Amino acid sequence: MKSIVLLGASGSIGVQTIDVVLNHSDEFVIKALSIGYNVKVLKDILTKVHPEIVCVVRKEDAQALSSEYPDIRFVYGDEGLVELAGLDGYDVLVNALVGFAGLLPTMRAIETGHDIALANKETLVVGGSFVMEAAKKHGVSLYPIDSEHSAIFQCLQGNQHHEVKRLIVTASGGSFRNRTRDQLKGVTVQEALSHPNWSMGAKITIDSATMMNKGFEVIEAHWLFGFDFDHIDVVMHPESVVHSMVEFVDTAVVAQLGTPDMRLPIQYALSWPRRLSLPGESLDFTKLSALHFAPASFERFPLLGLAYEVGRRQGNLPAVLNAANEVANQAFRDGRIEFLDIEDLVISTVNEFEFKKEITFEDVLEADAKAREIVEMKIKEKM
Predict the structure, then answer these.
(1) Of 43, 69, 90, 114, which sits most exposed with the smallest number of CB within 10 A?
(2) Which domains, and CATH codes, for the chain?
(3) Does the pTM of the predicted model rise above 0.90?
């Protein structure tokens, strides 16, 4: 039985991870979990699973919950997340946190010899070289949870790196895939959050609409699978049936298809190399009228093009890209800026930031903090 530490239990990936665990209670058990501010959701979770340790954001919540649940140890804050990641006696960390907050717990889990099932793409976007170097040093495996990276991971099984010609990452196009740039002026937060295919958290849904999410996935694929950016392509695929593909040197293309159900990549990351049963809807080819594919335009989605540029240059720019996007994304959701302002803020911050090629881990943290300050200042100037 695999023992799991789950970070981000109340988010979309976290909830579905718990569903996978409950569906295979003979295979998996949750040793510890973290949640944000939603104590009500946590209490519901604790009726289903029985962790030894729980991390919340606020100290006062941890103290109140300790009285209510004396058999559970409660910790809090970023320090609590790192403590959970470094626990003894578990097998795999499921990192379903959102944003930069996922990096330090991932590093701690790797340093203490734990495998990672990774849904927090910012970990590799911001700290890819450090994460992969640490994983190699400590003999730790990283299993992708993103549907696109899980698809590539599945397609690569039984094949050699030198046999691959390119990775093909599919993109739904997000909430505004059928709109021109002119039609994006004045769109609402609610419109942006209405993804046509997937049920995801608010931050990633907005990132999907700007295609920043796909840009992050390209950078993540580079680190996970070891291919340069000239051998990673993005194609538009609005149906989200083909989750991604791999083309081999003999021109054969292997694709992973399925219904848009995130439980599949979550479960595969936990059960690999085995496949376990999964209740849910099977893909019915007789009901598929057509599958469409088209090039991904950097002109239409400039943040995707920026991600390629940043990925190639590396240094401190990935940290800047992620930090600028996190702040701008949140500002749009808070009603402080317009949708198209997200692109302007991210692009201008990356272009204006002092580039540093050779970096330390501390440089990553510094670039993250400074980029956030710059974007906040730009937002205030707009208001």
Answers:
(1) 43
(2) 2-144 (3.40.50.720), 146-262+276-300 (no CATH), 315-383 (1.10.1740.10)
(3) yes
